[in-house]
Design brief:
alpha+beta; four-stranded antiparallel beta sheet; three-stranded antiparallel beta sheet
Length: 244
């Protein structure tokens, strides 16, 4: 995570910033209230190539019925500047769980529209990580070998299903109910090609089966291991019987 605040002048803004809460892994700031257009600057661990992969993916999400903020390029034409991105600020109301069925319908259209897109640069799916060590935020090489074996077993044990582009972090915290009633889907940091169940299990009312839940938890542990170590170890102890 960048230590210094973003140099917003690279995007033509030279004014005060307000820190936004909610991100555990990245920092976020918005322009001063009253500034139009309102902008959000987010720190990113991703490469420019990885962020560019998102552009057609997010176009497909918009066509499926989601509002998705598009990256604002800097005055130099870059999507990433010194570890920071810029996008429009989306205002709206808290998204509640009772609206998830409409998300599920849009999500199905999004999944169908992104068939054939190759893996995001620098990422690996859960199935790929049964044989490789790294992808996205996951680095199995720094984790205990016994736990790695259990995580891989959990991913291998997930029901066979369709693979394709997924948002990767669907939930009410990453959805906003806009004034028009259209759901906005934000925070695409974990998007990748993977089993679609990683998305669809989050938008149904019925709890996922044991094999699916085990695979979802294994993914959370692997992603959090370096970035949120206390949470990762707590989950590993509770769900996989690991003692640290």
């Amino acid at each position: 995570m960048p230590k210094a605040p973003p140099d917003t002048r690279l995007w033509g803004y030279d004014g005060p910033l307000t820190a936004l809460r909610g991100g555990h892994r990245n920092s976020a700031f918005r322009t001063a209230i009253g500034h139009h257009p309102a902008l959000v600057f987010k720190s990113s661990r991703r490469s420019a190539e990885s962020l560019l992969w998102l552009e057609p993916v997010q176009v497909a999400a918009r066509e499926a019925g989601f509002q998705v903020p598009a990256y604002v390029r800097s005055q130099r034409g870059h999507i990433l500047e010194n570890g920071w991105t810029c996008e429009p600020f989306i205002d709206g109301a808290e998204f509640t769980a009772d609206r998830m069925p409409e998300v599920a319908r849009r999500l199905k259209r999004f999944h169908e529209a992104t068939i054939g897109i190759e893996q995001r640069p620098g990422f690996a799916s859960s199935l790929e990580l049964t044989t490789v060590q790294q992808g996205g935020d996951v680095d199995l090489s720094v984790m205990p070998t016994g736990l790695v074996a259990q995580l891989r077993g959990a991913w291998a044990g997930m029901p066979d299903g369709d693979q394709g582009v997924i948002h990767g972090d669907i939930g009410t915290g990453n959805l906003i109910l806009t004034p028009s009633g259209q759901p906005a889907l934000i925070d695409w940091d974990e998007a990748r090609v993977d089993l679609r169940i990683f998305d669809t299990a989050r938008v149904v009312s019925d709890p996922p089966g044991n094999d699916i839940q085990r695979g979802l938890t294994a993914w959370e542990i692997a992603c959090c291991w370096k970035l949120e170590p206390e949470r990762a170890r707590s989950l590993a102890a509770r769900h996989f019987g690991c003692d640290f």
